[in-house]
# Entry
Amino acid sequence: MRGTSVLKNINRQFLIAARPDGLLKESDFDYVETSIPEPGDGQVLVQVQMVAVEPALRGTMVEDTNNPANLQIGDVMGALAAGEVVESNNPDVPIGTRVQGLFGFADYVVSHPKAFLFSVIPDGVPMEAALYIFDTSGLTAYLGMAHVGKPQPGENVLVSGAAGAVGSIAVQLAKQAGANVVGIAGSAEKCDWLVNDLGADGAINYKLGDIDAQITALMPGGIDVYFDNVGGEILNAALGQIRLGSRLAMCGRISEYENTGPAYEPSNSANIIKFCRHMERLMLFDHQDKFPAWREAMTTMIDDGSLQYRVDMLDGFENLPRGLIRLYTGENIGKQLISIT
Amino acid sequence: MRGTSVLKNINRQFLIAARPDGLLKESDFDYVETSIPEPGDGQVLVQVQMVAVEPALRGTMVEDTNNPANLQIGDVMGALAAGEVVESNNPDVPIGTRVQGLFGFADYVVSHPKAFLFSVIPDGVPMEAALYIFDTSGLTAYLGMAHVGKPQPGENVLVSGAAGAVGSIAVQLAKQAGANVVGIAGSAEKCDWLVNDLGADGAINYKLGDIDAQITALMPGGIDVYFDNVGGEILNAALGQIRLGSRLAMCGRISEYENTGPAYEPSNSANIIKFCRHMERLMLFDHQDKFPAWREAMTTMIDDGSLQYRVDMLDGFENLPRGLIRLYTGENIGKQLISIT
# Structure
């Protein structure tokens, strides 16, 4: 039985039209209109209101048998999104429940409470906060800091891509652990945000050059924890200054995703063997059992004001591809969301 | 009150006489005879019967503020050992209980049930098996395979130092996980043991040269899990053939411990960033809460015959330093123990 909230008779979607080659572009997506799907036993129909995009989504569009989220041409583009249940065949998730999950670039989607990353948004938590903190950005930052980096009071923690969705949470988690935290970002405005709003002890604008010297000036003893979102030359600079017992949380390599030339060769990688205690590529799929505890910890931090978030909101369903593409150009500050209602 | 088992009035000990410089030698130890200590409240007096040595012990003798087990000149040389409680001020560990712990190179030692690595040896488990499986060798192999390597059926697992105490357990744990397991060792006899007794699918005698070609021949698709006990050129060869999603359990670098020249520079370490999903230096201190479960899992394997162990036993208290020194020459096969009673 359809709920009364299903007002439109069409379901707008963006499908993957082509596997990306170099820069992601709007023609890599096809806009289609289909009918609204019917939920089966135990399933719910979600009307999506807000979509979250993140750099890792490009990786789901390329052919990669190692990525459990890999998509095919013709699939609805995947993404975290939040909305409201408008039909329900599951008593645990009645009509009207606010939920989030891997709903993708679509107005309506059939889902199930046991789907990967599906969760009910707690009362009192704004949808934007839920998409920022409870989804892959917050969970990945938590995995990288609480389970890999484990910064100790007084240790030196360096975060690249620090003004992005993951990086900005990673900075705050490290700061709460009592570390000396430095963020790397690509503009004076982003660096100001890191220091003045998020509490970083220092910030490095990589566009000013000589990253090595900037790291040395802010962390003369060397790096204990490096949280990497960018790869490439910045990763190499960090590896040049890790000290014995250091930990590396390898979240992403945004500087390399769109490189179609030869892979970047970091000259300092032997330091991983010499000095690094733990290096981990952050894979959320391996840690699903821990999500409820991590979400609870971060909800408490939102409630008491100790975890700030910043949203870069675009409006309009038609802007979904553009919202994703601008992540790779560095235009966004904080979490990129697209409101589609 | 002294138990009747305290028959001798002297307590033989080896103290650290000098921090090792290059090859470890007998003159790095001082033999002394002292009086038998008295256990305080909650403590027990243990008469040591059997001492286990392992390559990592040299690391506790050098100056290293990062090593929580670091010892000073004049300290009793540390080592895992097993024996019997001969005096007890603790009702949980009565006289006659067989125990193991970090008792060191001594006839008698005062200990406490809450001391690091202290455990009661279960009835029916031989002391040799306890020192092999329950102590740092077995626990380290378990950490490296069950928590870092996590081999899946059909994956390629390579273990260096495979005929050593840790390596031989690592090989068997990987085999039980259904992996294709290859061990690297330094003699035909050791390679035969790996394949014919421990169930390895192949073995590489590194003294025959061209390790790269030997790895390619046995694992043409590349390495999924590498468990490293040796470092140096063998580690570099393994890094040259890791594939996407691989895991590295970094246990030890025995080939480098006694090198006083420039550190070995692996040329293939950029592959860690390109391909490796998880690299961890195995640190037992971080995992004490898991020891009981790991010991129980391995006790079950000893009982059902699925975990074999091989002991290389020396006799005599005076042979304690020699038993340690011969580890670095590759003379031992399996776990090196010294019986001192």
Notes: The first strand of chain A starts at residue 11 and ends at 16. Chain A is about 30% helix and 25% strand.
